[in-house]
Amino acid sequence: DAQSRSGPTASFSAATLIIDRGAPTVTLSPPTSPNNSSVLNFAVGSSEVLSGLTAGDFSVLGTGCSVGTPSAASGSAPNLIYTIPISGCQDGQAVTLTLSQNSVADVAGNTAPGSAAPAGPVVVDRTSPTGTISGSTSSRASTIEFIVTLSESIQGTLDQDDFCLLYTSDAADE
């Protein structure tokens, strides 16, 4: 009879349901600058797994540069990293990669970032510095000075340990 029924006659359990209404936290980080690599690896950090991350989610500034296929995520939530390779950049370019607004989503469909996220610029420098040394070609002085001129700034310091002194002795001078 329809009025005496009160529910299932056996117990049951249901799957857990997680409600996710929050957007993932997403960051975009550049490699070091200046950089002489043929491929510049930018990093997208995310608090959640991203669904459908593609090269089309990015724009790149820099002559000759193109966005490659993003890597699968490494790490685990909330510290996931996706590598975005940029290749073909010409020497001397200042490369900026931008993740478009709301271009990525977590598995629940929440989009990020809330605004375009640029990273860079990264200066592509594949040209080795050149240098010239000028000074006296002969001298009787106890100290001889030379001037070193470089084509661009260098990292670190330049001191006497970076040079090798080669000389010949004229027997008449002794």
Strand order of the largest sheet: 1-2-6-5
Oligomeric assembly: single chain
Q: Measured on Cα atoms, how large is the radius of gyration?
A: 31 Å
Instruction: Quickly count the helices.
Output: 0
The level of helicity is under 10%
Number of beta strands? 12
Poorly predicted spans: none
Report the end-to-end length measured between terminal Cα atoms: 128 Å
Strand and helix order? EEEEEEEEEEEE
Mean pLDDT across all amino acids: 89
- Please describe the biggest sheet, giving its number of strands, its sense, and whether it closes into a barrel: 4 strands, antiparallel
**How much β-strand is present in the residues?**
25-35%
Structural class, by secondary structure, is mainly beta
Shape: elongated
What would you note in describing this structure?
The protein has 174 residues and is an all-beta fold. Helices cover 0% and strands 32% of the residues. It has no helices and twelve strands. The radius of gyration is 31 Å and the shape is elongated. The model has no long low-confidence stretch (mean pLDDT 89).
Which labels suit this protein?
174 residues; three-stranded antiparallel beta sheet
